[in-house]
Amino acid sequence: MCGIVGYVGESKAAPLLLDGLRALEYRGYDSAGAALMEDGAFTIVRRAGRVEQLSEPLAQLHSAAKIGIAHTRWATHGAPTEINAHPHISADGRWAVVHNGIIENADALRAELETLGIAFDSETDTEIIPQLLGRVSGFEDAEQGTPLDVLLDVLPLLEGSWALGILCANAPDKLLCACQGSPLLVGEGEDGLYLASDYAAFGENVHKVYRMTDGEIGVLTRDGAAFYDSRGQALTKPAEEFSHREQGGGKGSYTHFMRKEIDEQPLAVSRTLEQFFGGALHAAAAGDFRLPCQLPHSPRKVWLVACGSAYHACVSGKYVIEELARIPCEAVVASEFRYQYPLIGEEDLAVFVSQSGETADTLAAVREASARGAATLGVVNVAGSAIARACDAVLPTLAGAEIAVATTKAYSAQLAVLYALALHFAKEQAHEEPEFEEALRRLPESIQAALSTEDAAKAAAEQIAGADHAYFIGRNLDYAAALEGSLKLKEISYLHSEAYPAGELKHGTISLIEAGTPVIALACCERLLPKTAANIREVAARGARVFAVCARGNGEHWGTDSVISLQATHPLLMPSVEVIPLQLLSYHVARIRGCDIDKPKNLAKSVTVE
Ligand code: M6R
Question: Residue 529 to residues 110, 479, 571, 577: CA-CA distances in angstroms?
């Protein structure tokens, strides 16, 4: 989602800001802009579309400015146009602001300022901030107070969340920053100070990082950073050592990060599982299964809370925890959980699953569960992220940096952690599950074997790519996999698709099945095969083209058009195996349709607004 970069120091700011924006592109955005300050005057460049469109106009400025701020915007208030792109400027032209987050009382504040005669340029909530800064600082005397004093007066007027980078023409050597509910980092480099909303924006120059916390303000100059609390008291902040690594290790020989990350899944899952088995999964020295963190003993109920694909991992997790450990378990979408007055309490465990660890709804759900007394566990891929810090305990997924917006390896690592959690609870209840445990140790191999379905997935993709709609069906764990397969297809190929429990289709949606409609039928859940086979026959009888995903040579005689065959593993682990051909199918459909696979339109990697 939105990204902030800023710089003040000895070097020219424009190329550094541009590099920072490029590194943040993976987060998803739809416009970009930068403000450079030289001799107390701003130069602003903004464009709708890609960061690359800033490159030429910035270069043509030949600016010697050594201080600046820049932003990638993912539209919330107002269309993704140039006028709505950040930075926004105060009516008096003295303040420039970039902002991540949402100002919830922007409409009321805007109405007040408009009655005072201040004219707004954009439709954004952000513009309220420079306008307030301009108004407060200009109210009596333009020279009154320092920019820090003005900011201290303005921040209490705002409701919502923010990470801010601010320039003030009256203080040409200062870059101000502040955060509340949205991440912000200050990097110390050899040639100056860098501001960023994500570590990824820091290049090789940065060797120390200060992580800002809610309510803090920073004043950065070429001589160093000073930090203050919300009352303006000076703070001493510890710095973390930082060393730059290329994000995701680059694409190597792959055309897309997504395709590379699909291949990285056996490694991501094996690294994640090693935490539970005391090292290499099969080495003679491999230890017994053990949870690497403390959790409450046998909770009354387990809640699995997340968004998007992470929620789909939770749907699988629910089936597995209930079947293996016999503990009631509920999977809930985070944005619903937080407003449903959840009946959660001190005897419950709430598990929050998130690749980024920043998803606003999931983070708010952690706070809701904590306030109701539940123990909280984060399953996150980004160490030190907001969700990791907000939870009582953390079980990390060790998938490594995931760059493609569509998650693959982080999703697989999330499933692995949830299986391990199920095994832990089963053992606590004295249900020994040796077959499950052995199959779990071998899960990376099972996923590796599933990668050999690429030719079959590609052949299916060629037949599906021209369709307008597709349906995914399955029962039980196959339904959980269908949810993920359907999301993957629509998010990267823009082909409309829906996932249904196979037995539910005939209660309405089957009316949409006509000659040639693609139906991807997941039939790996062995105990329900006859039922799923009957549902496949129902859609085939109405002309659907059925692409079945099956194990053990099943599926040939059910009226299917083609069958993608998988090697079977323990039935409760099949979601990890069957999702592989679904990821490959989506990837090839999107490739055939010429889509921007790693950066699908309208999507963001980290969804940091509600
Ligand atoms: O970072 P998170 O795991 O919390 O993100 C949750 C969803 O936004 C994410 O899984 C999203 O659905 C992916 N784009 C799906 O590929």
Answer: 60, 13, 12, 17
Residue after which a domain boundary falls, among 418, 441, 464: 441
306 CA → ligand 1 middle, Å: 9
Residue (of 32, 152, 23) closest to 87 by Cα position: 32
Nearest alpha carbon to residue 355 among 391, 316, 386: 386
The range of the structural domain enclosing residue 127 comes to: 3-247
Q: Is the CB of 406 under 6 A from ligand 1?
A: yes
Q: Which residue has the higher pLDDT, 608 or 97?
A: 97
Residue 2 annotated in active site? yes
Residue written as tokens 């001190």? 346
Q: Do residues 61 and 14 lie in contact, with contact meaning Cβ atoms separated by under 8 Å?
A: yes
Q: State if residue 405 touches ligand 1 by the CB under 6 angstroms criterion.
A: yes
Name the burial class of residue 462, with classes exposed (0-12), middle (13-18) and buried (19+) by CB atoms within 10 angstroms of its CB: exposed
Q: How far is the CA of 596 from the centre of ligand 1 (A)?
A: 17
For residue 264, the number of C-alpha atoms closer than 13 Å in the C-beta half-sphere is 28
At 446-486, the pLDDT tens digits run 999 999 999 999 999 999 999 999 999 999 999 999 999 99
| 126 and 158 housed in the same domain | yes
pLDDT at 246: 63
Give the DSSP H/E element, type plus range, for residue 319.
Answer: helix 308-325
Average pLDDT over the chain, rounded to an integer: 92
